[in-house]
Inverse folding.
């Protein structure tokens, strides 16, 4: 699990960092006046695209990963290959259908802003390719081989970001074109990135084709699964993955289609002010906090085939241990990452988005960082439920969480504005998480005492790290204020790096000194302890 999580974490984190870093030069290209509305337009288009893409992918990659792992555990590698080929047909068909729907439905998804139409049209082209690419990633993950997925994910993001820069610069600075066209080309970059990511996967398969063929040749080859049954397995396994995989996006869409109307009732803010506020919590903060959530996503992707294998072998103890270890590893990584981001929210926000609305934006980012913990936990525990074939229950509990979000949305947004969307999201995911964990505990057991001890230590060390990093931020701002403007983007970057490094070192030192890192990550961390002379 650690090896798989490491690959997926590296790929996902680097991709998310690239996906956040692009905003700095992108903001400079669009300029102070155009950036807020361009960012809001980009975010609105991408939220709709993300939902349609999840439906287009239809949960097939994760379902394929799970079922391939299942048949591989039975030494029936040939069935897994057949499963992939049948899934390929579904992925291509879903890509074409979803792209057509997105293209023709664009005029009805504008939320009152016709500029969203060309953005959605550009994104529909990416929907053609990404389902097939994602399916292929799922096939590799079924072999618990995470490196092709991780590297292709990074290359995909790199190509996307490069195209965004070049197209925006050419359209706005060289051709002096329309800003909506520039945003549309920035979103079309998703299609360009997908092409490059797919090429990387093809290269990996070509290099390892003899290995995969050898596994198929040495299979038991006693299991003959009819094509109709394979399709039935894919679809039955994929449907919950669609709903649960779209979980975060569904909550974002609820915000997108309710926030403006509620705020129009609750306030007399202008439309431009509402667009800026929406971009701050749904776009700016979300881009950064999703870096933290991607840690949980990486862990979830790695744990599904492992749990599926244990479930296939009816290894109840193995399932219990995997679940307990997954929760501990999640807490060990996610809690300090989220609290650390909350501590450096001020300079981090200024680094990416400048000083415009900086106090409001920083507070939103700090709150969003805390919100990322229940979101990340949902990503992990819903994946665990799917790994042990508790799909219907997982969907049921998620639906209850959505109902909580819908019920609390109006009063909380009315009372707290942008913060209300974050609070209602937290409430929905907390309820869903509690129901899922209770169900898993009842069905498979959980090492409560072990998890409780780890949780207490991790939370304490994370809080110490949070206060140290927060003090470092205020201290560095105070000292820099004697010689320069500490709130400029460059100085904020310096404060961010230094405060994050100080806080990160504190957490690392405490976890190494207490030996909690050894218990979570294994004996290899002894090398780090020796290097730092920690007894």
């Amino acid at each position: 699990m650690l090896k798989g999580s490491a690959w997926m974490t590296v790929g996902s984190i680097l991709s998310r960092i690239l996906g956040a870093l692009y905003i700095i030069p992108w903001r400079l290209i669009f300029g102070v006046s155009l950036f807020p509305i361009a960012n809001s337009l980009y975010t609105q288009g991408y939220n709709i695209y993300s939902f349609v893409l999840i439906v287009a992918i239809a949960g097939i990659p994760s379902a394929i990963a799970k079922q391939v792992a299942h048949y591989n555990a039975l030494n029936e590698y040939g069935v897994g290959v057949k499963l992939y080929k049948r899934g390929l047909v579904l992925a291509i068909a879903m890509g074409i259908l979803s792209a057509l729907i997105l293209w023709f439905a664009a005029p009805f998804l504008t939320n009152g802003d016709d500029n969203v139409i060309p953005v959605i049209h550009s994104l529909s082209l990416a929907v053609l390719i990404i389902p097939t690419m994602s399916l292929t990633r799922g096939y590799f993950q079924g072999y618990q081989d995470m490196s092709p997925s991780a590297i292709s994910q990074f290359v995909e993001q790199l190509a996307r970001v490069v195209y965004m820069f070049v197209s925006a610069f050419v359209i706005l600075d060289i051709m002096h074109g329309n800003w909506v066209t520039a945003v549309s080309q920035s979103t079309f970059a998703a299609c360009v990135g997908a092409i490059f990511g797919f090429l990387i996967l093809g290269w990996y398969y070509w290099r390892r084709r003899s290995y995969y063929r050898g596994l198929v040749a040495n299979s038991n080859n006693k299991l003959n699964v009819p094509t109709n049954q394979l399709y039935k397995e894919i679809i039955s396994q994929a449907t919950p993955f669609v709903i649960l995989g779209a979980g975060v996006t569904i909550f974002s869409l609820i915000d997108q289609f309710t926030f403006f109307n509620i705020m129009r009732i609750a306030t007399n803010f202008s439309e431009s002010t509402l667009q800026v506020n929406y971009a701050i919590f749904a776009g700016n903060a979300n881009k950064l906090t999703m870096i933290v959530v991607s840690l949980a996503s990486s862990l979830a992707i790695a744990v599904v085939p492992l749990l599926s294998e244990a479930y296939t072998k009816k290894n109840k103890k193995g399932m219990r241990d995997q679940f307990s270890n997954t929760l501990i590893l999640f807490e060990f990584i996610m809690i300090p990452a989220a609290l650390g981001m909350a501590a450096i929210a001020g300079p981090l926000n200024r680094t990416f988005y400048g000083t415009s609305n900086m106090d409001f934006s920083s507070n939103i980012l700090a709150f969003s960082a805390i919100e990322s913990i229940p979101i990340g936990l949902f990503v992990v525990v819903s994946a665990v439920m799917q790994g042990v074939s508790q799909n219907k229950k997982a969907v049921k509990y998620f639906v209850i969480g959505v109902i909580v979000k819908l019920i609390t949305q109006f009063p909380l947004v009315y009372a707290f504005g942008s913060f209300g969307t974050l609070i209602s999201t937290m409430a929905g995911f907390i309820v869903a998480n509690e129901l899922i964990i209770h169900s898993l505990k009842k069905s498979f057991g959980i090492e409560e005492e072990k998890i409780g001890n780890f949780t207490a230590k991790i939370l304490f060390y994370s809080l110490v790290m949070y206060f140290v990093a927060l003090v470092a931020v205020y201290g560095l701002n105070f000292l820099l204020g004697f010689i320069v403007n500490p709130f400029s983007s460059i100085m904020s970057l310096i404060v961010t790096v230094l405060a994050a490094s100080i806080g990160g070192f504190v957490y690392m030192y405490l976890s190494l000194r207490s030996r909690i890192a050894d218990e979570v990550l294994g004996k290899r961390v002894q090398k780090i302890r020796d290097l730092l002379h920690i007894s």
